[in-house]
Design goal:
277 residues, mainly beta
């Protein structure tokens, strides 16, 4: 015969020192099915079919209960990439979330394993398609036909992992011993750190041991003139992750090089880490 533990009653004192009765613990029983079952408001998987503006709405959840922490998870599949010469595309997630009378907006690269924990009770998620490293979208560039995007959201928080990839051009004059970004690179919303990465064309030219390698943060975004430097942080190794200084809206990146044989314009990848990831 199965035995169950006896429920114990007792008493405790409240903050005023008075006795209060304590009854047995009560646990809610959550049914396996409910309004969340099969709901496209909580999970969606679609073949990506961008409109004329290279965008597509993927998921929309209207107000669902009181505000709480929710976690968003992104994923995709695209087997055609293996045989697609024009596989250098990227999908950007456009996320608008909010609660009460306020909404916020962020963008991140649509990467498998992306997770964002956000305070909200309403959210909409769209996708923007573009050729990697090029803005705006190149006319005639076609997405893989089997590109499928997926989104799942659920109550609760998880460790954030979200990035936004960007491309910047560095410039150096013939004979110069430094290359630098021509324009300020704007810092995206919710970015907490940045990881600049040079490509193969620049890798052989950069002196990674030089104290001249640095990121300089700026108080105003491009192309607004003026502003103040909010500080410099040395880039002391390849692909170093740099914390963004308070009050910063944009950044320059500069690398020491050997004497350049000719005027140089080369791209670097700037990987912004969001929400402390």
């Amino acid at each position: 015969m199965m035995k169950f533990p006896r429920l114990k009653w007792g008493s405790a004192k409240n903050i005023d020192g008075n006795n209060i009765a304590i009854g047995p613990a009560v646990y809610p029983i959550i049914p396996p099915n409910g309004p969340w079952s099969g709901s496209n408001h909580l999970g969606q998987q679609v073949i990506f079919a961008p409109d004329a503006n290279n965008r597509q709405s993927i998921l929309k959840m209207d107000e669902w209960g009181p505000p709480e922490m929710w976690t968003v998870s992104l994923g995709f599949t695209a087997h055609q990439y293996a045989n697609d010469f024009n596989a250098g595309c990227e999908v950007i997630a456009e996320i608008t979330f909010g609660s009460g009378g306020a909404t916020q907006y962020l963008e991140c690269s649509w990467v498998n394993g992306t997770q964002l924990s956000l305070p909200m009770n309403t959210i909409s998620i769209g996708a923007r398609y573009q050729q990697a490293g090029l803005t705006p979208f190149v006319a005639g560039f076609i997405a893989p036909s089997d590109l499928v995007l997926s989104v799942q959201i659920a109550r609760g928080s998880a460790k954030n992992y979200a990035v936004l990839a960007d491309t910047a051009m560095v410039h150096g004059l013939a004979g110069a011993i430094e290359v630098y970004t021509v324009d300020r690179v704007n810092i995206p919303a919710f970015a907490s750190s940045v990881r600049p990465s040079v490509g193969l064309a620049l890798l052989s030219l950069v002196n990674f041991g030089s104290v001249l390698n640095h990121a300089e943060f700026w108080s105003v975004p491009y192309p607004i003139a003026g502003g103040l430097s909010t500080g410099l942080v040395q880039i002391d190794q390849v692909n170093n992750k740099i914390p963004i200084l308070p009050g910063s809206r944009a950044a320059y990146f500069s690398y020491a090089t050997s004497a350049l044989p000719a005027d140089t314009d080369l791209p670097i990848t700037v990987l912004w880490h969001l929400l402390g990831s």
